[in-house]
Amino acid sequence: MTTQTKPEEAAATAAERAFLSVRDLKVHFSTEDGVVKAVDGLSFDLERGKTLGIVGESGSGKSVTNLAVLGLHNRKNTAIDGSITLDGQELTDAGEKQLETLRGKKMAMIFQDALTALSPYYTVGRQIGEPFMKHTGASKRDARVRAIDLLEKVGIPHPQQRVDDYPHQFSGGMRQRAMIAMALSCDPDLLIADEPTTALDVTVQAQILDLLKDLQQEFGSAIIMITHDLGVVANMADDILVMYAGRAVERGTVREVLKTPQHPYTWGLLGSMPRLTSDVDEPLVPIPGSPPSLLNPPSGCAFHPRCAFTEDVAGGRCSSERPLLAPGRAAACHLSGDQRQQLFIETIQPRLG
Amino acid sequence: MLQFLIRRTFGAALILLLISAFTFFMFFAIPQDPALLACGKNCTPDALAIIHKNLGLDSPVPVQYWNFLVGIFAGRDFAVGHCAAPCFGVSFANNQNVWDTILDRFPLTLSLTVGSLLVFLTLGLGAGLLAAKYRGTWLDKTFSSASLVISSMQIYFLGPLVLLALVYSTGWLEKPKYVPFSEDLGGWFMGLLIPWVVMATIFTANYTRMSRSSMIEQLQEEHVKAARAKGMSSNYVFFRYAWRGSLIPIVTILGIDLSSLLAGGMVTEFTFGLAGLGRLALESVVNKDLPMLMGVMLVSAALIIVFNLIVDALYAVIDPRVRLS
After folding, report:
1. Per the database record, which ranges form the ABC transporter domain (chain A) (predicted)?
2. Domain spans of chain A?
3. Which helix (H) or strand (E) holds B51?
4. In what helix (H) or strand (E) does residue B299 lie, and over which residues does it extend?
């Protein structure tokens, strides 16, 4: 997702080069009330050593996308369509055994809350060493050495002693570090971080993000950073994908999306974020309304019921026709490029300060 | 751990003391003279007075209680002879030594209780695990609906049915009886097989449902998903991660169920004509036989306390957070 000159060609080469490539992914759950279209036609690419930030409100399909990549969705009630290729290997039709050899080794996940994501019944060392034993056939003793190594790498003091501690004996920040150590156990090429800092206080957040950046430089992993915190993405990501109601609505580099956002939803997200430079008396502007039901999403552009600019589009296309997201730097919106440019400069930018 | 044990032992002693005092004084609140029972049809006031003296009923109640307590540790002398420590007295009804009677009946009750405990834990937890593993399939539905039906099968209803089917009409098994297992292990096992299974039936159904729901809850835990995300196989995660956690609520319920287990034992003894502590307890209540009643109460209470200690120790084995705090 770099150049903009010839979109089709650029997309094709990006997909070839990409380490992880998701094409037209659909994840639909069947429930008693009907089919929930949690992810509905999502495409993105990620290269080795790069970080992709996926941003959106709760229920926009961020986490579901990544569970689908790992194959951890409930197979009984979930229909998956489209393609996910990791290093040339198709994942959507891979068998459970095949996925087990990939999980933890080639792709690993850092969960949001380490308190619930680490089992209270086993020592931290055992939980870190377990995937190492499974994937490399290492002995218990080697796994322990590996766990101590990793604990040291993620900055746990006295790893020789702490390796035999249980998660409840760790502080919140240390648990998150241990969780990261567990994900790094087999040097995965793809690291999915699902809101890795949401449960932590701000100083620890910064430390964890720095740690992730350092580790990425060392291991060269690709990272998917799922978050609703634009500050985290600004700090970490190379590219940004903004999701709304199971679809990507805007895509670009961090600079492009944060400096010159093009989609009204992204404007809303940026407008609801506090800024150090703005006046303290100036209230934050939330996006009106609430995220749509994925059981019965709005017609046309899913954002149109909450969008302030639908009248600028002729013929009511916002509620009748779904805008497409072009490859490369793009936003899925019926407003023309000039209109967006003008609206952003005149009404949005002054508010963002 | 040592401190924990000492504290618990003191607690247990206190509980036993309170139970004994409560039972003792409550007994004398009953407006009927226990000596009348021993006195027979042609009772004269003189004969009654002699019996009172022989049974030690002529002194004030607190003194009687004190003598009872002393007897447990030091032994006592009765008109019928010496009663060595631990002396719980002599039965009002038949002059038998209470402690000897209890020792005679206790092995049956222990065999019955522990045996059926093992049966329902094995079957109940096993069926619950299978139902959770194959949730939503015909297997799960069969187990779930069967456990609903079976949980309403009372011992006194199921017992005679099983006896009719397996003993009286087919002769496949012998009528339940108690053979001390030090004498004949096979006879002990075959003699108690039917009572074990019948007594365990309701518990099995309940523990199946409990184990299933606890397991389903655990399988949705984040750490189970995290273990899957690092590539551990579904069977490994099922047993190592989910099962371990699912045991904690089950152990809690087990601690609560221990007294109903003893009550179930009582009904089972009656159903199959076995002579254990449960039968003894009921007989002593009917006969206003205070020494026997006290003895059975205290032994049952001690049994429940010991079981509870084991349950508490199980928590520590399962959950390091209990062990280390």
Report:
1. 22-270
2. 114-187, 261-352
3. helix B45-55
4. helix B290-318
In a domain, B120, yes or no: yes
Rounded to the nearest angstrom, the minimum Cα separation between A69 and chain B is 11
Instruction: Answer whether A131 sits within 8 Å of B318, measured CB to CB.
Output: no
B292 domain residue, yes or no: no
For residue A8, is pLDDT > 70? Answer: no
Residues of chain B with pLDDT under 50: none
3-state secondary structure (DSSP) of residue A307 = coil
Q: Measure A118 CA to nearest chain B CA, in Å.
A: 5
Report pLDDT for A15: 56
Task: Quote the domain boundaries for residue B120.
Answer: 108-274
Query: So what's the ipTM on this one?
Result: 0.85
Q: What residues contact residue A117 under an 8 Å CB cut-off, 6+ apart?
A: A111, A179, B222, B223, B225, B226
Distances (CA, A) of A211 to A152, A156, A292, B307: 12, 12, 36, 50
Give the pLDDT of residue A1.
Answer: 45
Tokens 């060609």 correspond to what residue? A9
Taking residues A39-64, report their average pLDDT. 90
Nearest residue to A127 (alpha-carbon basis) of B233, B320, B226: B226
CA-nearest of B198, B200, B208, B199 to B139 is B208
Q: Is residue B223 part of a domain?
A: yes
Please answer whether residues A151 and A167 qualify as being in contact, where contact means their C-beta atoms are separated by less than 8 angstroms: no
Spatial distance between the Cα atoms of A249 and A172, rounded to a whole number of angstroms: 34
Say how far apart CA A105 and CA A111 lie, in whole Å: 16
Mean pLDDT (chain A) is 87
Distance between CA atoms of residues B296 and B265, nearest Å: 14
Q: Looking up tokens 């984040």, which residue turns up?
A: B222
Residue written as tokens 């009663």? B83
Of A103, A116, A127, the CB nearest to B231: A103
Task: Indicate the angle between helix axes B244-272 and B277-286, nearest 10 degrees.
Answer: 50
pLDDT confidence band for A228 (50 / 70 / 90): confident
- Name which of B251, B252, B302, B273 is nearest B110 in CA terms: B302
- On whether residue B54 sits in a domain, the answer given is no
Q: Tokens 């009886």 — which residue?
A: B177
| pTM, 2 dp | 0.82
- The distance in angstroms from the start CA to the end CA of chain B is 11
Q: Number of H helices and number of E strands within chain A?
A: 15, 11
* A3 pLDDT more than 70: no
Q: What is the rounded average pLDDT of the residues A315-323?
A: 86
Query: What kind and span of H or E run contains A227?
Result: strand A222-227
The count of domains in chain B is 1
